[in-house]
Amino acid sequence: MDGASSFDDYRMPEERWEQLERFLPNYPESTKGGRPRADLRSVADAIFYRLRTGCQWKSIPRELAPGSTAHQYFQEWLEAGVCVSP
Prior knowledge:
mainly alpha; globular
């Protein structure tokens, strides 16, 4: 098993993503340019990885999403009521 696919077991199925995506905030594209937003599905996978394993945010594998990015979205989604704190 190569390193790129070793975290595939932590990725959610397509059906689950479609259910979750409906609850996420709508992020309009910036008219000022800049860095594009992170892939929300990868961010959600990273958040679920952290919740399932109990690892530190910075220990989330970068193949899923950077830990700081996952934590930022997690905090934002908590505030928006998308998820509740464990």
